[in-house]
Amino acid sequence: MKSLYIHMGLHRTGTTTLQRLLKIQREKLEENGVSLVLRADMCAHENLDMRRFYASRWWRPKKTGLIVDGLDALGGNSVIVSEEGLPGIMPGIRSMRAYPTVDVFAKKVAEFSPRFDVQPRLMLRRQDKFIESVYAFRVSRGMDMSFRDFVKKVPTADLDWRRFTKAFEKAGLKNSEFYVLEDLQDEDFAGKLIEMVGLKDVLETPGRLPKGNGRQSVEALKLALALNKAELLTVSDDRKQFVYRKFEKKRALTAEECLYELPINPIEKDRVRSFMKEETSFGFTDEERVKFLAKYEKANSELLAHDFVKADADIWLEN
Prior knowledge:
five-stranded parallel sheet; 319 residues; alpha/beta; 47% helix
């Protein structure tokens, strides 16, 4: 039976790094009987597109059958699917919900079992770090909401990661393995990513990982948030790239220094400066973090003790 590894995120947990690593090695993977399905492959062929399983119009068995057939038609003895949007979307895109229909996704994945040896893979991250990273990412993409308002609007229950263990356990997906980002962030991160998707005996650990969607500096986010409030960042992709390239070249650059060079008129610059003077935050204070994590203390203790989770039970106490 063909193996089907489904790497499904979460967002902001190194998914882009893994996907770029796999893409670079696509030819070698195919030589070793491993077919690769990434976002571009899904966009190019409807019969490989699993991203909408959480949308009601894709619940129909006919759609699932077409995708099963499409994956089965791929060559080799193993298929790796990697796309962080499979179980849903991060908060701040269509709504403030986080993966609200993961149970639907788990049920659809279970329907692959008669034809494949299904191996679900998920990377988790402690809730405070997840929400900080998601917020920074959304600001870099045009969000103008404050961090504190963002946190308040994300439903507490959505960030209880036991939802994933319960959904996949209920669906009978016994081969599910859930990893914890904080447990893998060491010198062998690349090797652990490769092992997670069953490629330990296929790929050598690279000396250097491909670049992922790293978090912007606080100064870059400060300028981006002000530009968003002034409705000046997302109206021009060239403008957005100008800002982020400046900060990429010089991490110590200040928001004011970048704004000075930004090709917008003086009136617009004054508007942006007025927003930059407002109090901004891109993360929790120590006191806020303790209070926020207290809501998940019991849930996280149960989660990390679950058989699906491949991490030390006290990993989130140490980080």
